[in-house]
Specification:
Number of strands: 0
Distance between the termini: 21 Å
Structural class: mainly alpha
Order of helices and strands: HHHHHHHHHHHHHH
Helix content: 55-70%
Shape: globular
């Protein structure tokens, strides 16, 4: 969106929020004009982040984006580039991107290193699937040479050996996928069990992904929503799953109750958010992201890039 389009969208969102507040249910947290302004612009930021990958899908992508030895390596762009002909590799690249996250200073460098920037042959999905234990040993041997950092959503992760390290996480991911036979079979099964309902399929996969170590609420939500954005799965977030997170829950309490520490339970809040999302038509990922960032600075808009 250019500046004019952003302003138009902001005005439309503010009008929608006011209508909801007046005719559906109170939005006490955005009654102060400065709060309304801050929340609207967090929505705009979130819409742009979600639509970014969709924009990438419409543009040519350089081969360097899939080369871990290139400074231009980008696992998300790489996943988009190979999704049509190498879907299984694309799923793996999305997982790698989600596990590492994009660091504000080092960017995708850690993902490049874990994909095999120092190797003659990258650690592709086929290679890892053939011998996940060797990949875990390789990380244990070489993690001290990596200079890339985990992104904000993954800041508590580790490359060190042990039951909580990256090697163990990847092994658990491989075991989860091979339980279905392949990534494609996993998605097909989810759609079959939910009769093709994109939101129900998301919910099913979200629950099943508990099998992957160290992928809590944020990791699973980020991974599954990215599969949708890249075009690998026709799924859509059904809830924000705020019961397992702090930021979105605090944001929802502030938005609907006007206080960040209200006693309203997560189930009621989820119902309210679902009603507001349906009214705005922005998608649950936008709601989750916007509420989480807005509650950090509710009366003054601040862009968050971490």
């Amino acid at each position: 969106m250019n500046a004019h389009e952003k302003e138009q969208r902001a005005q439309a969102l503010e009008a929608q929020l006011l209508t909801f507040h007046q005719h559906n249910m109170p939005l006490r947290g955005v009654v102060p004009p400065e709060n309304m302004l801050a929340f609207v612009w967090q929505l705009i930021d979130s819409i742009q982040r979600v639509s970014y990958v969709q924009t990438v899908r419409t543009r040519p992508i350089s081969a360097s984006r899939a080369d871990p030895q290139s400074p231009f390596f980008d696992p998300i762009r790489a996943a988009v580039a190979v999704s049509a002909e190498q879907a299984e590799e694309a799923f793996w690249l999305v997982f790698l991107a989600t596990h590492c996250g994009r660091h504000l200073r080092t960017g995708w460098q850690l993902a490049a290193e874990l994909y095999g920037a120092s190797e003659a042959v990258p650690w592709t999905w086929a290679r890892i699937l053939n011998d996940p234990q060797s990949y875990a040993h390789w990380i244990e041997d070489y993690h001290g040479t990596f200079v890339g950092k985990f992104g904000n959503h993954r800041k508590y992760e580790s490359l060190k050996p042990g039951p909580k390290g990256t090697g163990a996480i990847v092994r658990s991911y491989v075991a989860w996928i091979t339980g279905f036979g392949s990534h494609a079979a996993m998605i097909a099964q989810a759609h079959a069990q939910t009769k093709g309902n994109a939101r129900h399929a998301f919910g099913l996969l979200y629950k099943q992904m508990r099998a992957v170590l160290r992928f809590g609420r944020t990791g699973r939500f980020d991974y599954l929503t990215m599969l949708s954005k890249v075009g690998l799965a026709n799924i859509e977030a059904d809830y924000t799953y705020m019961n397992e997170a702090t930021g979105p829950k605090r944001g929802a309490k502030l938005l609907f109750d006007g206080q960040i520490d209200s006693n309203t339970g997560a189930r009621v809040l989820e119902e309210r958010v679902a009603a507001l999302e349906q009214h705005l038509g922005v998608g649950m990922q936008v709601m989750e992201d916007a509420m989480c960032n807005w509650q950090k600075s509710p009366n003054r808009y601040k862009p968050f890039r971490g």
